[in-house]
Amino acid sequence: MQVELTHFLVVSTLLFSMGVFAIVTRKNAILVLMGIELMLNAANINFVAFSKFGGFGLSGQVIALFVIILAAAEAAIALAIVLNIYKTFSNVNVDEINNLKE
């Protein structure tokens, strides 16, 4: 059995679906960030798979590298925001942090 493009797409679809499910159903901000990371990893799998099977050279790997760098920066900034919210409100539930408008 050889690994083909459809195998990569199925894994990517599952990861992306789990990420969307985590964002929609979770109230904790940390778990929402984990869902976003799952979605970015699914996009990386697609970039690398299409780069390999589509004959695009190294462009898919380069874009995946930029997405990984973006995800690291996003995680650092988002965790700093979550820590600041926890220090202010003593919880990180997304539903209960609507006082930021005031």
Report on this structure.
The structure is a single chain. The protein has helices at about 5-25, 30-55, 60-90. With about 100 residues, the protein is mainly alpha-helical. The protein has one domain: Orthogonal Bundle (Helix Hairpins), CATH 1.10.287. Helix 2 packs antiparallel against helix 3 (about 60-90).
Properties at a glance:
102 residues, mainly alpha, Helix Hairpins, 76% helix
The CATH topology turns out to be: Helix Hairpins
The total count of strands amounts to 0
CATH architecture: Orthogonal Bundle
- Rg to the nearest angstrom? 17 Å
Low-pLDDT runs: none
Percentage of helical residues? over 70%
β-strand percent reads: under 5%
| Secondary structure category | mainly alpha
Distance between the termini: 59 Å
The coarse silhouette is: elongated
What's the pLDDT, averaged over the residues? Answer: 89
Integer tally of domains: 1
- What order do the helices and strands follow? HHH
Number of helical regions: 3
Query: What characterizes the major β-sheet?
Result: none
Which helices and strands appear, and what pairs or packs with what?
Elements: H1 5-25, H2 29-54, H3 59-89
Helix pairs in contact: 1-2, 2-3
Question: What's a quick, concise take on this entry?
Answer:
The protein is mainly α and 102 residues long. It has helices at residues 5-25, 29-54, 59-89.
